[in-house]
Amino acid sequence: MAWRCELTGKTRQIGHRVSHSNRKTKRRFLPNLLKVTLLSETLNRSVRLRISANALRSVDHRGGLDGFLLRAKDSELSPRALELKRQVAKKRAEAAAA
To answer: Cα(64)–Cα(17) distance, rounded to whole angstroms?
Structure first.
């Protein structure tokens, strides 16, 4: 399982661990990933995603999962989230046409 947020695309970063003698060795900075169940109001079902804590705050700020997905860039989303975005957009288009 990759250390990657399914919504924002945040991934691990590489840096240096610096000792007191200023010796530098490689280390990883991992994102704070959480397994969260989010509710899609348009699709009327819940979705389980592995997202960062920062993404969870962004989802709340943008008005839920549907609002976040519709504003998100396709390049940042995982294949599962991209499929969800397509389903939400399709369902909203059907609702607007009817």
So the answer is: 38
- Which residue, 2, 31, 27, 4, is CA-closest to 17? 27
Cβ contacts of residue 16 below 8 Å, gap of 6+?
24, 25, 26, 27
Query: E strand or H helix at 89, and its extent?
Result: helix 79-97
Dihedral sign for Cα atoms in the order 48, 83, 74, 13: positive
Judge contact between 16 and 24, C-beta under 8 A. Answer: yes
DSSP at 52: E
With pLDDT > 90 as the criterion, what percentage of the chain qualifies?
Answer: 96
Mean pLDDT across 83-96:
95
**Cα separation of the two ends of the chain:** 41
